[in-house]
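Section 4.2 – Deliverable D4.2 (structural model, holo form)

The reporting period included a commitment to supply a predicted holo structure for the target in complex with heme C. Inputs used:
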Amino acid sequence: MFLGVAATRADPPPAFEQLRWTAPGSEQALLSEQPATCLASDTPLVRSGRALFTVPTLLGGQAAKAGLSCASCHINGRDNRHFLLSGVSAAPGTADVTNSFFSAARGNGHFDPVAIPDLAMPGKISRDLAAGALEPFIRNLIVEEFGGREPTPAMLDALAAYVRAVRACPGEPSVGRRLSDQLSAIDDGAAGAQLMLDSADTQGAALSIAAMRHQLGLIAERYTGSGLAREREGLLAASRALQTIGEGDPARIGPALARWKSEFGKGLAKRLRSAEGRSLYDRKRLAESLR
Ligand code: HEC
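Output (structure tokens):
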């Protein structure tokens, strides 16, 4: 929906989804920098989990409506010091995940926001594979706290594998935001969709495709102005093509996605790369647009 809005207006004012849950005054910081993550491994399973981590429709109810995903609070699996959402946060960087905002059925009735933990650090929940505590914890988060649909075992495997792989990068706390973040997230989604299809998991495949479309929307937010209208049209068309693929015959999704990806890589992705300097991935332009 957002992509449609961004792509049809001639000169849309910047409307960044992430600013809906960002502390006032931190807009530039949030949109230009992000916590750096060095994954312990980047197997297709881990990448598939990274893709699911970014899809709002993994969560349900209010969270999905607001556009929140796991990554809204745990940027790149880390934390989000700028997170501020009315009714959910006390100070920036805090959230109450047992709040009735997210799940009317399960809200504990107390407003008790805590600091959003950095998942690269050891926490309350054991990351030990043999202990197997992480999978049920994530399942409860999705279903009980965020009112989402029951995740499949393949989806939980992927999410847990990703969380287990998240590490800080030595000597590099944060990195700039770039188009390549979104392009590699699109690759993650495609790899994830294939993995889910291989285990006949249509729910996981649909969410992986949703992850890819979400990333196209994030790119569109940055390609504003009349000079980038062609790129925005391309993004909208690419997103619609993905939607059609996802709604089609499951047996054809794999080959159709592979074709989509190869065309995207040869065409639109190249054009986006050469226009990146004129987009709001450019820090100066971003700062001007936020003024
Ligand atoms: C609204 C912000 C928010 C969202 C969205 C969110 N989390 Fe969290 N997460 C938190 C907070 C706050 C805690 C700490 C809760 C506590 O300590 O009681 C937490 C805790 C965790 C932990 C436990 C860390 C530890 O201490 O060991 C894991 C793992 C985790 N989240 C994964 C996820 C996953 C996976 C998703 C998506 C399904 C997700 N989170 C979505 C805010 C969020």
